[in-house]
Amino acid sequence: MRPTIMRISTEAIAANARQVRARLPERVRMMCVVKADAYGHDAARTAKKLLSAGADAFAVAIVEEARALREAGIEGMILVLGGAGEESLREAVRVGASQAVYAPWMLEVMQDEASRCGVRAKAHLKIDTGMSRVGVRGDADLAAMLDCWRRCPDVEMEGMFTHFCAADSDPEFTALQNGRFAKALEQVRGAGFAPIAHAAASTALLDPALQYDMVRPGIVLYGTGVPALADALTPAQTLSTRPIRLQRIQPGDTVGYGRTFTAQRETLVMTLPIGYGDGYPRILGNRAPVLVKGRRAPLIGRVCMDMVMADVTDIPGVTLEDEVVLLGRQGEARITPDELAELAQTIPYEIMLGFASRVPVEVVD
């Protein structure tokens, strides 16, 4: 069997959640985001672990993810953050998930399904304060939405929220968004509704002005995303393998497709059984390191579909039995999703989520 494996520590995720919880006022609830299979970390296992770390609610992107959590035994509030068509809205009612809504017809569908099933549905009013993605925008549309809600007695306005689009880079625009949200919240509460208000995701959740009744930690749970907590967080993924070949090449020899690496000295090349077919980004060839015996070794040549090569000339005593870490910690050395994201000219979300199904996953604590 191929030795390539992704190990996930749910205890690391729980520890990250506790770091967040410790920095929030007691009154502020924590809605943990476990969409996209908990950012590639196994949503059901992660949600169960997060309950012990202070999670008050969960958020997903689509109703299928909410259904999977219910089937795994997760109770309580699960919010579907994304937009939805009619059948998804009806399914949210059936599985007892809260649904983000931003148009009167969505409420009408949920009211119809709730009446048909004899249940009380729950929804969170989404306000578009500047993302221009989904949400109610403007006073007139909000007033129309509230009028419709009064005609939907079986749909509870459980919450109301927005999403900041540049909390990590544009505090002025974030303040503008927050002002728009506060104004909309005043209008909603003035109309007699009493929703749970939430706005801040990972980057913004430490700002008291943005915390409201609840925050939505997402990527911070998985070990990154909040610079102020960088030293307190533990990335939960470790991607490792073992070499399948060690071979010395001579000065002038080249490595890989396109001959993009030329040896300047006698070089010990380690070949590893992982490549872009496993979701390891092709752009990392000649850029990223791997960890061998707790030391960094540079990748050389292009990343192939199923293999990569590393220069281990300066690491004494390497063997075919050595574990090689491509993402995660080995000894005192560490390769983080942030580092790989910078080298790959992307974001850590894409690194975490990008690994293919042929990479086996093992949950460890």
List the helices and strands and how they pair.
Layout: E1 5-9, H1 10-22, E2 29-33, H2 35-40, H3 43-51, E3 57-60, H4 63-71, E4 78-80, H5 86-95, E5 98-101, H6 104-117, E6 121-126, H7 139-150, E7 155-161, H8 171-190, E8 196-198, E9 214-215, E10 237-241, E11 245-249, E12 254-255, E13 261-262, E14 267-272, E15 289-292, E16 295-300, E17 308-311, E18 324-330, E19 333-335, H9 337-344, H10 348-353, E20 361-364
Parallel strand pairs: 1-20, 2-3, 2-9, 3-4, 4-5, 5-6, 6-7, 7-8
Antiparallel strand pairs: 1-10, 10-18, 11-14, 12-13, 14-17, 15-16, 15-18, 16-17, 18-19
What would you call the shape?
elongated
Estimated helix fraction: 25-40%
Average of per-residue pLDDT values: 97
Could you tell me how far the N terminus lies from the C terminus, measured between alpha carbons in angstroms? 23 Å
Secondary-structure element string: EHEHHEHEHEHEHEHEEEEEEEEEEEEHHE
The value of Rg in angstroms is 24 Å
Low-confidence stretches: none
